[in-house]
């Protein structure tokens, strides 16, 4: 498993969000993630928390999609800012919106693109792409346009494409939001069987219980770090307490 180390990490609103015309700096330095230290080495880590609690921001730190405002994040000793290339060779990112990452018009072509670095022969690459699609039960979509797929179909194809690139860690931001129960169960089986280390955010508590470790965020702070059953309980408590506050 890869070793993620967060040292004195915090994230504040990026200066780029300041309004250049009004000079309004009121949005600057709003805390998105409060300072924290953390090490992650488990095979399956779930990230839970209410909307806007900081889950996606945390996940984006894992492969350098976002940089910390303070502190450092490293993966197997590679800094996610200074050595982002090495980090991205290790850590793949699956976006919530599959259209953020499907770049080729045809499903098969998109998977082939992910395989390009590892399989030079085009016939072998096509065969491998079809096998990868088949492993997730979507080989029948191979010749379809990504624009004509349903949301759930796109989410599964995006997963195949990301996995085909072969990184040893998969970071997945709410990977089953568009999936029905059958495909969610399929995704859970796939996640259980993959050799990759997987760090994923979800609002699906059944899915969350498959993890070896849970982190629960609230208001940009890690309010629970431990086994999944305790994480689910902490998240439920947090949400029911908010319901009461709102009355
Ligand atoms: N670039 C940014 N500029 C300003 N605010 C931001 C920026 N990125 C994130 N935020 C804010 O930080 C907070 C945390 O956002 P984040 O996307 O990490 O939440 P989340 O837990 O993933 O939420 P959800 O469950 O709704 O996806 C939110 O209030 C969001 O509006």
Question: Can you describe what's shown?
Answer:
- This is Biotin transport system ATP-binding protein.
- It comes from Neomicrococcus lactis.
- The chain has 247 residues and is α/β, with parallel strands linked by helices.
- The protein has one domain: 3-Layer(aba) Sandwich (Rossmann fold), CATH 3.40.50.
- It is built from 8 helices and 10 strands.
- The protein has helices at residues 55-62, 84-90, 107-115, 122-135, 151-164, 181-193, 205-208, 228-246; strands at residues 4-12, 31-40, 44-48, 70-75, 78-79, 91-94, 169-173, 197-201, 213-218, 221-226.
- Strands 6-7-8-3-9-10 form a 6-stranded mixed sheet, sandwiched between helices. A 4-stranded antiparallel sheet has the order 2-1-4-5, covered by helices on one side.
- A hairpin with a 2-residue loop joins strand 9 and strand 10.
- Helix 3 (107-115) packs across helix 4 (122-135) and helix 3 packs parallel to helix 5 (151-164).
- The mean pLDDT is 91.
- Adenosine-5'-triphosphate (ATP) binds next to helix 1.
- Adenosine-5'-triphosphate is lined by residues 13-14, 17, 32, 49, 51-57.
């Amino acid at each position: 498993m890869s070793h993620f180390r967060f040292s004195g990490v915090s994230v504040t609103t990026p200066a780029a969000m300041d309004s250049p015309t009004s000079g309004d700096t009121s949005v600057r330095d709003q805390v998105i993630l409060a300072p924290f230290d953390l090490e992650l080495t488990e095979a399956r880590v779930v990230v839970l928390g209410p909307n806007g609690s900081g889950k996606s921001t945390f996940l984006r730190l894992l492969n350098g999609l976002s940089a910390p405002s303070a502190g450092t994040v490293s993966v197997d000793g590679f800094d996610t800012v200074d050595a982002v290339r090495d980090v991205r060779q290790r850590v793949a990112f699956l976006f919530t919106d599959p259209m953020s990452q499907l770049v080729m018009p045809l499903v098969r072509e998109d998977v082939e693109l992910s395989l390009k670095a590892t399989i030079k022969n085009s016939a072998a690459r096509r065969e491998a792409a079809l096998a990868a699609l088949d492993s997730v039960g979507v080989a029948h979509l191979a010749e379809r346009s990504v624009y004509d797929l349903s949301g759930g179909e796109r989410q599964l194809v995006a997963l195949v494409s990301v996995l085909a690139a072969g990184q040893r860690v998969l970071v997945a931001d709410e990977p089953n939001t568009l999936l029905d129960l059958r495909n969610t169960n399929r995704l859970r089986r796939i996640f259980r069987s993959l050799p990759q280390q997987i760090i994923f955010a979800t609002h699906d508590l059944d899915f969350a219980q498959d993890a070896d470790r849970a982190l629960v965020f609230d208001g940009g702070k890690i309010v629970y770090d431990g086994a999944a059953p305790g994480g689910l309980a902490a998240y439920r408590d947090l949400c029911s307490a908010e319901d009461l506050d709102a009355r």
